[in-house]
Amino acid sequence: MEKIIDENIQGQSLVLDPKKGNQRKLFIESYGCQMNFSDSEIVASILAKEGFNTTQNLEDADLVLVNTCSIREKAELTVRKRLEKYNAVKKINPGMKVGVLGCMAERLKSKFLEEEKIVDLVVGPDAYKDLPNLIEEVDAGRNAVNVILSKEETYGDISPVRLQSNGVSAFVSITRGCDNMCTFCVVPFTRGRERSRDPQSIIKEIDELVDKNFKEITLLGQNVDSYLWYGGGLKKDFDKASDFQKATAVNFAKLLDMVALKYPKLRLRFTTSNPQDMTLDVIEVMAKHQNICKYIHLPIQSGSDRILKEMNRLHTRQEYFDLIDNIKRIIPNCAISQDIITGFPTETEKDHQDTLSLMEYVKYDYGFMFAYSERPGTLAERKMDDDVPEEVKKRRLAEIIALQRKHSEHRHRAFIGQTLEVLIEKESKKSDAHWSGRTTQNTVAVFPKENYQIGDFVMVHIDDCTSATLLGKAVGIAP
Ligand code: SAH
Ligand code: F3S
């Protein structure tokens, strides 16, 4: 069959099926975690084969898809606001169809169709391969819903279309779902049980990225350290696997080692690590390979043992300190970042002080901090009162953010005077005369462009910083 290569899709060549034509325009946008952005690239790939070409222009779209997030109430409100905007555009372009993808689709299911009259299509995170059929339904004038969660789907056979890519860094998802059941978290309900992707399909995707000259990849999962491939199937069924499957299973340390060895020139990152699942092997593999970035995102949520227990985080404060000590012993220059929730039900002032003192111990390079948002259906919502007043949550959050800012600045100051390797990713937001890139520690560095190019690894002498950014001057291409 003759293939048509369309160069129009944000710089990425797409193979379109000529039978389906290349008539329709897809506008797709994503909210929430990196996994959603990665999933949208899978969706764009599935729909490219149906003759959909992506557009950046909402007004031009035949089909608008919004990949949604349910993690906090605010994330859902943001999506509802976007639906209002689509509604306004639909008045000018009545043929336009609107679909909701991702976690809100899974959480609200067909209720979405009643609540938001503008929505034609509701598709959960494991049902994207059904999109062609669902769109046929919509074309025939019927609403379509598929929110079935899967035990196997990893989209390992789909080669994602890189949307809005800088051509330098890309995400590669390695697990889907989460089995951890943190009591505050909606993800296990919206993304289903944890399953891992076949290492061969991961390698194939990385091969394609290397061919396209990508320089950095981030292995992605809700809980990457829990990665386990034993021939397919859910993580929780590993006990029932055969002796052969057990003996040949690939865990996260092995996968990381394999990828790092195979692609010595590629920078590797991964996210997210859950302290209860991170093993010393992973840290040792990181130390062994120069191309694995020295940075770990290691959410803690709370510094109080009592709250950690209520959250069903299966480690103590002391075990977390032991892990941090091991990381710093094995990789002295490793950067660490956190996620923290303030105002979880029953959190006292003493618990809050425990979080602050934990932060003092670790002195994180940076962090992502949130006020607790009660999510329908979670164990915390069913069993606990959301009893910390909003103003107390906000005050505690402000204290945590202020302390984090102090620590970030402290960590960044320590880089002044050093010459660090930076991968150039894009133009600085603040100045078109400067490049912006990241160090191995994931710290953003900004410096004059000179003759360097996006995608270059350069050595940058750091001479100043803000709480978020290192400032310096390139002194040459990295060796
Ligand atoms: N393992 C996941 C965590 C997803 S949620 C990952 O890959 O990042 C990201 C962060 O959102 C969590 O670590 C937590 O700090 C925060 N979060 C989750 N549920 C929340 C809630 N109900 N209220 C406030 N913050 C929440
Ligand atoms: Fe959520 Fe805990 Fe999993 S935060 S994504 S249930 S590790």
Briefly characterize the structure.
With 479 residues, the protein is an alpha/beta fold.
Low-confidence stretches: 1-19
Tell me the domain tally.
3
CATH architecture of the largest domain: Alpha-Beta Horseshoe
Write down the CATH topology of the largest domain. Answer: pyruvate-formate lyase- activating enzyme
Number of helices: 15
Helix content: 25-40%
* Rg on CA atoms, Å: 23 Å
Structural class designation: alpha/beta
Sheet with most strands: strand arrangement: 4-3-5-6-7-8
| Mean pLDDT metric | 94
What is the number of strand segments?
23
Question: What's the overall geometry?
Answer: globular
Portion of residues in beta strands equals: 15-25%
CATH class of the largest domain: Alpha Beta
- CATH-assigned homologous superfamily of the largest domain: tm_1862 like domain
What's the story with the biggest beta sheet? Answer: 6 strands, parallel
What does it look like?
With 479 residues, the protein is α/β, with parallel strands linked by helices. It has 3 domains: 12-146, 3-Layer(aba) Sandwich (Rossmann fold); 169-412, pyruvate-formate lyase- activating enzyme (Alpha-Beta Horseshoe), CATH 3.80.30.20; 419-477, Beta Barrel (OB fold (Dihydrolipoamide Acetyltransferase, E2P)), CATH 2.40.50. It has helices spanning 34-48, 73-92, 103-108, 111-115, 131-139, 187-191, 199-211, 243-247, 252-262, 280-288, 305-310, 317-330, 349-362, 379-383, 390-413, and strands at 4-9, 12-16, 24-30, 52-54, 63-68, 97-102, 121-123, 144-146, 169-173, 175-176, 195-196, 216-220, 228-229, 250-251, 267-271, 295-297, 335-342, 366-371, 419-427, 434-438, 444-448, 457-465, 469-477. A 6-stranded parallel sheet has the order 4-3-5-6-7-8, sandwiched between helices. Helix 9 (252-262) runs parallel beside helix 10 (280-288). The longest helix has 24 residues, at 390-413. The protein starts with a strand and ends with a strand.
